[in-house]
Amino acid sequence: MYFHLLDAFREAGCPVCSLLARGAQRALDGLMYEQANDPITRDRLVESHGFCNWHAWMLPRIANSGLGTAIIYQHLLQVAREVLEEARQDAAAGRRALGRRDRFFGTHGAPSPFPEWRRKKTPCFLCGLSHQSERDALTVILDYIGEPEFAEAFARSAGLCLPHLGLAAELGQAHPHLPELLDAQALLWRDLHWELGECTRKADYRYADEAKGREGTSWIRALSLFVGQPGLFGPERERMAPSRPTDIAEAPPTVAEPLAADAHGAADSIEQLRFENERLKRHVDDLVTKQEDDRKIRLALEFQVCKLTGDLKAMAAGVEAPETPPVVSALVAAAAGDRPPRQGGDKTQ
After folding, report:
1. Sign of the alpha-carbon torsion through 13, 19, 22, 27
2. ∠250-22-128 over CA atoms, to 5°?
3. Nearest Cα to Cα of residue 16 among 158, 201, 114, 126
4. What confidence score (pLDDT) does residue 324 get?
5. Residue range 218-238: mean pLDDT, rounded
């Protein structure tokens, strides 16, 4: 989760929203590929009347999901047709049974099977998985926001959306790193507030000629800040949300925890070793990349020094300095990180 969050910090919008969206797509992809005919999965989908709006409309964006979707929803539609037929028969029988006086005074018999079936609908089970992933991601942010590398990556992100910041504040009321999270979020909101002001100011005709920057998209980021990613916080997730989440620091132990303490401790140690190993590998990769960049810059500087020395000697001797071949210039520019000139000269787009 730690490294998934570091990757999510580089994306637009709330990193937890991005993480949940990617996780939901992976879960749907695996379900369509492996569990479309699984009886347990099918029973859960029958109880929830399929996926929620958010998860259902992810399916068209998943490659080769058409067959699995057709198999699942053919079954769901068959169940719905059976309920509808029962409701039709019940409605027809009720209409014949009710006399004119009953219809006039609004007398009703037993409730219709169709509304009753809809009322028994359970929440989308994929939303339940998202709830747990959401809690895990916010716990990791609270645990590591005090670490310089993690805090720096968070500061370069869009920060948490308002719903996720509120949930993090509830989950981590007694967490020692909650003040650091709120401080980092306050800085990000300050910058966005300034950009919104610039967006408004540059809409004035007196400043319309000024160059447009990040403030041009600030209003979209403000929407994302207040409501999260599109579709993520929908009616299904609101139905599943507890009235008050359990505080991370106050989470009560389960009955099985004392019995499995040793096993959990060993698993945690292995997971911690894997975490440190992955973290070290990333650090080494960063150092190797930086070393390669430094080498390219050094080579480019050495070439420039040699060229300048040759030009000075040529000027002292009163001769014209030799022209650098285009291929060499392009290689030096590439080594310095500059964009090489196009063949035939640059063209203005």
Report:
1. negative
2. 45
3. 158
4. 65
5. 80
